[in-house]
Amino acid sequence: MFNFNRKSKQPDYKTMDDRDLVQLAKKDKEAFGEIYERYLTKIYNYIYYRTSNQQDAEDLTAKVFYRALSHIENYVDKGVPFQAWLYRIAHNLVANFHRDKSRRKIIPLDDYVAHTLKSDAPDIQAETSEQKASLMEAIHRLPADRQQLILLKFIEQKSNAEIGEIMERTEGAIKSLYHRTLMALRDEIELQQLTLKSDQPKNREKKQG
Fold it and tell me: How far apart (Å, rounded) are the C-alpha atoms in residues 51 and 60?
């Protein structure tokens, strides 16, 4: 005999790809819960490195997933990875956050990021604390889009194609921006080193005086 009262087997959300999971999440909150767990750390890290404040990062991360949950019924799969949609929401919320607070858009990268940059970017050396500090200062002076590129490239370890999807640019445009960013960082660091050397005689004169 058939058992019509037997509950259907719950799908295994953890083994699903994003596309199937998103379709279920439009009506199933448990499926959205898996999306939350899958991308919580990545979205939080992305926001944290653009705010430098744990509380702000936690608040904005919560808003990202609240907004995603509120609008997921209207999400349309256009062949772009679902995570790009989440990153775009995060980017817009962070931009609004800085605008509302009248703060300069920076990515406060720490020593971990400097170490990553050292191993991935051939024109950047950050072996000493002084060099790391110089690198951080140079990055902070970059335009917001270049800071975002560095964050996605070295923190999130995204490919140029994935970064293009998130920043809504072609892969070729990302490659070009990446190259210009490295050149700009190199020039900034060289300028800082020249400035430091020119200031050293002045400091000696002050000490002697």
Answer: 10
CA dihedral 26, 166, 126, 205 (to 10 degrees): -110
Domain final position from 49, 69, 101: 101
Which residue is it, tokens 């808003």?
63
**Global pTM value:** 0.57
Show which of 101, 119, 145 is a domain's final residue.
Answer: 101
Least confident of 20-29, 88-97, 151-160: 151-160
Q: How far apart are CA 80 and CA 6, in angstroms?
A: 38
Contact 84, 165 (CB under 8 A): yes
In a domain, 174, yes or no: yes
5: buried, middle or exposed (CB in 10 Å: 19+, 13-18, 0-12)? exposed
CB 48 within 8 A of CB 68: no
Q: How far apart are CA 37 and CA 31, in angstroms?
A: 10
